């Protein structure tokens, strides 16, 4: 076994989001089958969307394709929307490792203090040059997975309720439902702040929308390492991350590590295999060993388990090797993802390397480990929310927060349809998300 540091982790990282998907065999949770509809019915559904600022914004966001790496147009839409609502917007240009000329932004926005009255700030001029120090950041991502699926509306035949309207298309759930609901939430809170009926201070709130969550988390990592973040985070009490959680509060999500294994053999005629060296035969024992690590007890060398997160799991997600049945293969490679219920990235790395080492005593394989992160615990100390553990990865570990800053993960719609052909959620899901985000913000502010 030989560790290869020269291999970039970008390829491993690019398969991260694919590995993050749950199986799409949970059809029981999929929406009811939809019937073909008439033009009148289509107009009817469209009217429901147009009459709601939340649903119109959501539609506008979904109608702009923003597959990771191509987030510029949707970013422009988000910026113009926020500026039209008197937000002060800062954009961060985030480099794309796969395309040096690509242009896209993280978007950080705070209510413009000169436009939103604040009874809390007696001398606004005093801190004119110091950026606002929000207590709560609401954050979600503006990129989606491929392929683009156009926005569409439908309604179960048995229903006449606007709440039952199903909104489908790429990003309707993951993550533009969260983007639209978080913007609407802050607008609602600001309007109550302006009316004086609540003690919300506009400068306590900020919005953060990042790129590349679905590939390598580079948008959130960029923000986390930026002077902008350092300059605004001194009062931070909570970050509310938006990802589909079926309207529940996630109590945590598993960690992840990945392994990329390469075998170099020697080609020969299959009738004379002793003249070659099969790369497939070299790599198979290592893959079998890794495949068992999730089922093996930790005391016997298996992956960690925990009460909160259950068992760690293994997915031998990609393998290739050889060129034909009658040729001894000279090359083979595989990629394996580990969803972690415990342990640290370093301890998991040792465990993986140990298992491969036993299967490859001569050290012939090349191995590159993407260490990733351990399980991510999240806060759930808000009454009235159900909680759930989720198995997918998020940007939460990519944002460094100070000790004591709460991290909530909440969003409308189900991860079981996000990324699928049938991605969609109901009007009811969307509207409830705004109510729930408001409750989370108020809780975080102690109101
Ligand atoms: Zn997402």
Automatic annotation (TrEMBL):
Peptidase M20 dimerisation domain residues: 252-363
Cofactor(s) needed: Zn(2+)
UniProt keyword list: Hydrolase, Metal-binding, Signal, Zinc
Superkingdom of the organism of origin: Eukaryota
Record-linked SUPFAM superfamilies: Bacterial exopeptidase dimerisation domain, Zn-dependent exopeptidases
Signal peptide extent: 1-19
Family: Belongs to the peptidase M20A family.
Protein's recorded name: Peptidase M20 dimerisation domain-containing protein
């Amino acid at each position: 076994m030989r560790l290869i540091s020269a291999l970039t982790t970008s390829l491993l990282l690019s398969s991260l989001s694919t590995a993050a998907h749950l199986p799409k065999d949970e059809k029981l949770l999929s929406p009811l089958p939809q019937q073909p509809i008439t033009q009148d019915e289509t107009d009817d559904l469209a009217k429901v969307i147009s009459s709601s600022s939340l649903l119109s914004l959501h539609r506008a966001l979904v109608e702009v394709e923003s597959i990771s790496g191509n987030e510029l147009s949707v970013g422009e839409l988000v910026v113009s929307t926020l500026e039209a609502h008197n937000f002060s917007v800062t954009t961060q240009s985030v480099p794309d490792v796969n395309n040096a000329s690509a242009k896209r932004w993280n978007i950080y926005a705070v209510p413009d203090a000169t436009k939103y009255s604040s009874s809390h700030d007696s001398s606004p001029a005093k801190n004119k040059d110091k950026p606002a120090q929000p207590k709560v950041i609401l954050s979600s991502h503006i990129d989606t997975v491929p392929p683009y699926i156009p926005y569409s509306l439908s309604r179960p035949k048995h229903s006449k309720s606007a709440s039952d309207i199903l909104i489908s298309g790429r990003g309707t759930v993951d993550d533009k439902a969260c983007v639209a609901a978080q913007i609407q939430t802050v607008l609602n809170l600001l309007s109550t702040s302006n009316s004086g009926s609540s003690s919300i201070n506009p400068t306590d709130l900020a919005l953060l929308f990042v790129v590349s969550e679905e590939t390598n988390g580079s948008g959130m990592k960029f923000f986390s390492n930026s002077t902008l973040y350092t300059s605004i985070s001194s009062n931070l009490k909570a970050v509310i991350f938006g990802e589909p959680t079926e309207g529940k509060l996630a109590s945590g999500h598993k960690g992840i590590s990945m392994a990329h294994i390469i075998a170099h053999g020697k080609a020969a005629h299959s009738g004379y295999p002793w003249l070659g060296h099969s790369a497939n035969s070299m790599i198979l024992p290592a893959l079998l060993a890794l495949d068992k690590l999730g089922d093996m007890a930790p005391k016997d060398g298996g992956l960690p388990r925990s009460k909160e997160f259950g068992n760690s799991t293994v997915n031998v997600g990609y393998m290739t090797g050889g060129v034909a049945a009658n040729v001894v293969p000279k090359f083979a490679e595989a990629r394996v993802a580990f969803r972690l219920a415990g342990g640290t990235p370093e301890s998991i790395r040792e465990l993986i390397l140990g298992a491969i080492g036993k299967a490859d005593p001569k050290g012939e394989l090349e191995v590159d480990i993407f260490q990733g992160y351990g399980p991510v615990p999240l806060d759930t100390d808000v009454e009235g929310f159900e909680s759930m553990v989720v198995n997918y990865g998020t940007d939460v570990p990519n944002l460094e927060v100070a000790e004591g800053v709460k991290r909530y993960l909440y969003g409308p719609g189900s991860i079981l349809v996000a990324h699928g052909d049938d991605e969609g959620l109901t009007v009811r899901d969307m509207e409830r998300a705004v109510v729930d985000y408001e409750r989370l913000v108020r809780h975080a502010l102690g109101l």
